[in-house]
Amino acid sequence: MRPLGVAVIGTGFMGKCHAMAWSHVVPVFGVETEIRLETLCDTNEAVTRQKAQEGGFARAETDWTKLLDDPRLDIVSITTPNNLHRDMAIAFLEAGKHVWCEKPMALTIEDAEAMAKTAATARVKTLLGYNYIRNPALAHAKKIIQEGALGRIIHFRGQVDEDYQADENVPWSWRSRLETGGLGVLGDLTCHLVSFAHYLVGDVAQVCADIDTVHRMRLVPGSSEKRAVENEDIAHAMVRFESGATGVLMASRAAHGRKNMIRTEVHGTKGMIAFDQERMNELQLYLADDPPERRGFKTILTGSRHPPYGAFTPAPGHQLGFNELKVIECKHFVDCIESGDEPYVNFAEGLKIEKIIHGIATSAASRSWLDVR
Ligand SMILES: NC(=O)c1ccc[n+]([C@@H]2O[C@H](COP(=O)([O-])OP(=O)(O)OC[C@H]3O[C@@H](n4cnc5c(N)ncnc54)[C@H](O)[C@@H]3O)[C@@H](O)[C@H]2O)c1
What we know:
single chain
């Protein structure tokens, strides 16, 4: 098979995660395709050059537009702040490169729609960074649901909480500003929760929501000036799925003590499944058909019977971590590029998630139910 040349744009938290995924996908999965780490791109030349060398990239670049016409590149990972996703993704799609872009898609619905429109006519693939749904535990939960073990799915409960904005002294940053960060907790965390809901239950059709900004002013780093936080710290919504099931979505970036809680429950007429990302190798399963004296939640600890766990280690219970989810996501993208199948979550599916998170903000402002289809 023809080798695939890769560029990663951004060398921060997610840039490193993508770079590791690209270098691990072949050793972990034995992918037949040769992956060539061609270019690492960020704005600081010295840092980018050093990280390119450490990560095994052939070259470093500071101007992303120089990558557009590079024939050595087939795929681009976009891991820059949200305000850059739209322009970068559209330019690379138009240049005929496959695009793996971090979530959220963009700052506004209009931008996300423009990205999905370009992707629809491009002859290349798109994927968004909804890594949490790559978890073998989640794949197993979906299998249990699809096999009917929980009966008819009647309710979804989701809570996503972190505490990175809980302290009022956390400085003002690009994340606090509509022009650079877009939505607050909705764009940062709720979108992941919606990816769980869509993956496990199906599309959300309607929302009725409330949002709040807890710390309205924050100090500008290195000065005594305070600036307004323009987006929400907390958001919660009642939802209705296309299927008729009901649900609740809750999110906070100001929840002291929570580091990466993504707690989800799928309730059925015959049982319930619960999962929490802070205990990402476990599922809790309750089956109402068990004999009454033995009913109770049981813990399923993931292992090689829960693919693709076994690609990483043959030993059950030894546990996967956050970065491994990105390797699984990377494998999915390579498989789709080779087979021609549509990746999940591609830009069209991602636009549905954007409509829900922006719908939650709109519903909160209008204090009413909103159709988000
Ligand atoms: N999927 C997930 O679980 C997850 C987790 C965290 C962040 N994210 C998303 O990833 C994206 C990046 O977040 P992060 O936490 O990695 O941010 P970060 O600040 O750690 O990294 C962003 C990088 O982009 C670089 N950059 C900025 N402008 C650039 C330009 N014009 N050209 C090249 N590089 C440029 C910055 O210098 C920085 O190195 C965001 O969209 C965020 O929402 C996703």
